[in-house]
């Protein structure tokens, strides 16, 4: 019997799940065996995580069982922690076993970039998974309870968000919306609560439309956020941070959103990369190992003018779409298509009813942008789970 090629998709985040769904649709029976490996049995909607982290949405709305999304007759799902990938042997090491592949799709996502700032790894929180956002939410609530007991400890109710990129700004909007509710339930005077955004560069959302950025910052300022730009964090401790100008901010909560780097497992393979994001070729393949593709936050691709594209869900989905088409073509001996990316635009939420963005070259802000943001979120749910998932997990409020 002829050997049936085995495609192993490593990671079931945005890139991995969309690749699996596309292959499920396109491949004919017996064309290939497809195995999807992920360390959890659920897919999480990362672009929602800032909401449960701040406590403005239920964490359950950000997680979906993987087997409810895929056809398990066509895609084999394996809940397993990948410990190593050995491209020379076409082998994926798991905590308890291994998998051999003919084609590997590495979609392991990214990790927080801490730039070696002392204390960040130990003391800061990161918005990156279901577990991490549950921890953040509980920690914030606990600080209010502690402050009630020790009202001289203003550090308990000082919340520092490091980084003013999209994740930081979106989280600030949610946190600022939650503070009045927390003050009411814990009986804390809102005047004592501080939400501070610290950003090394000179503005929020560097590279984004300056008028929209100004609008967004005004919205957040009105909700009580203070901005500190142009001063990098030098050190993070359990109850204070130190800025580059030696200013000390007493705070018991630092949420770090300062950047993303590729997954450690991908970095360990030693490929040519920038911040552990692998430089893939025009077919999203690793140049030395054409049977291996890397997509999503662990890959780096460049725009037509040579600038690295920021790691986004939108990019990971576009890569997954293109890659699935090429995998099918490769199995059928057809020519491959080069990956070309056209951004559909970007919308950043600023909390309830407010957002800023550029969609199809049009600038949008306020409630119109907020509605668009919801449409984008619902569209993703539709892509991976159709109308039933939209109805089950969609946020229409
Ligand atoms: C709060 C927040 C808001 C965001 N908002 C937006 C937005 O509005 N628009 C946008 O386009 N992008 C947004 N992003 C970025 C977007 O979420 C990422 O770019 C996207 O998730 C990358 O997809 P991926 O497939 O590379 O990785 P992920 O979606 O992170 O998936 C990686 C998968 O690999 C699994 N995995 C990791 N390690 C292992 C292992 N060792 N073994 C097995 N499985 C493993 C993980 O469990 C996960 O399922 C946001 C990110 C955050 C954090």
Describe the overall structure.
The chain is an alpha/beta fold. It folds into 2 domains: 6-39 and 80-112 and 260-342, FAD/NAD(P)-binding domain; 114-258 and 344-397, 3-Layer(bba) Sandwich (FAD/NAD(P)-binding domain), CATH 3.50.50. It contains 9 helices and 27 strands. The protein has helices at residues 14-26, 50-54, 120-123, 130-149, 166-186, 210-222, 264-268, 313-331, 366-393, and strands at residues 6-10, 33-38, 42-44, 63-65, 75-79, 82-86, 91-94, 97-100, 103-106, 110-112, 125-126, 158-162, 194-199, 225-229, 233-236, 240-243, 248-250, 253-256, 260-262, 273-274, 277-279, 285-286, 289-294, 299-300, 345-349, 355-359, 362-365. The strands form 8 sheets. A 6-stranded mixed sheet has the order 5-2-1-9-23-22, covered by helices on one side.
The termini sit apart by 55 Å
Low-pLDDT runs = none
Q: Tally the helices: what do you get?
A: 9
Mean pLDDT: 96
Determine the fraction of residues in helical runs and give it as a percent range.
25-40%
Secondary structure category:
alpha/beta
CATH architecture of the largest domain: 3-Layer(bba) Sandwich
Number of strands: 27
Looking at the structure, the CATH topology of the largest domain is FAD/NAD(P)-binding domain
Output the radius of gyration: 22 Å
Report the biggest beta sheet as strand number plus sense, adding barrel if it closes.
6 strands, mixed
The side-by-side strand order for the widest beta sheet comes to 5-2-1-9-23-22
CATH class wording of the largest domain: Alpha Beta
């Amino acid at each position: 019997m002829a050997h049936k090629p085995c495609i192993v998709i490593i990671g079931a985040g945005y890139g991995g799940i969309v690749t699996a769904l596309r292959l499920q649709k396109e491949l004919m029976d017996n064309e290939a065996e497809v195995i999807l490996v992920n360390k959890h049995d659920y897919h999480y909607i990362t672009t929602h995580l800032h909401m449960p982290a701040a406590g403005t949405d239920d964490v359950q709305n950000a997680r979906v069982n993987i087997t409810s999304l895929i056809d398990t007759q066509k895609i084999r799902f394996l809940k397993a922690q990948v410990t190593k990938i050995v491209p020379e042997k076409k082998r994926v090491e798991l905590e308890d076993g291994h998998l051999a592949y003919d084609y590997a799709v590495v979609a392991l996502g990214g990790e927080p970039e801490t730039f070696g700032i002392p204390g960040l790894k130990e003391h800061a929180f990161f918005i990156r998974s279901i577990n991490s956002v549950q921890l953040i939410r509980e920690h914030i609530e606990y600080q209010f309870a502690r402050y009630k007991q020790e009202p001289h400890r203003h550090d308990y109710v000082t919340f520092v968000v490091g980084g003013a990129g999209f994740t930081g700004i979106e989280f600030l909007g949610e946190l600022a919306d939650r503070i009045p509710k927390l003050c009411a339930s814990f009986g804390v005077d809102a005047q004592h609560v501080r939400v501070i955004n610290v950003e090394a560069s000179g503005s929020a959302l560097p590279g984004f439309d300056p008028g929209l950025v100004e609008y967004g910052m005004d919205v957040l300022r009105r909700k009580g956020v203070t901005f500190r730009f142009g001063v990098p964090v030098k050190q993070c401790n359990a109850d204070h941070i130190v800025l580059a100008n030696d200013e000390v901010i007493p705070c018991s909560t630092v949420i770090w959103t300062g950047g993303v780097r590729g997954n450690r497992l991908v970095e360990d393979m030693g490929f040519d990369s920038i911040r552990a994001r692998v430089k893939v070729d025009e077919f999203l393949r690793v140049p030395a190992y054409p049977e291996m593709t890397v997509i999503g936050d662990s890959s780096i691709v460049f725009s037509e003018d040579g600038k690295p594209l920021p790691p986004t869900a939108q990019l990971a989905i576009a890569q997954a779409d293109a890659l699935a088409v090429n995998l099918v073509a490769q199995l059928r001996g057809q020519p491959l298509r080069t990956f070309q990316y056209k951004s559909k635009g970007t919308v950043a939420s600023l909390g309830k009813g407010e957002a800023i963005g550029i969609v199809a070259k049009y600038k949008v802000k306020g409630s119109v942008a907020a509605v668009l943001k919801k449409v984008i979120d619902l569209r993703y749910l539709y892509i991976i789970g159709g109308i039933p998932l939209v109805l089950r997990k969609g946020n229409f409020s």
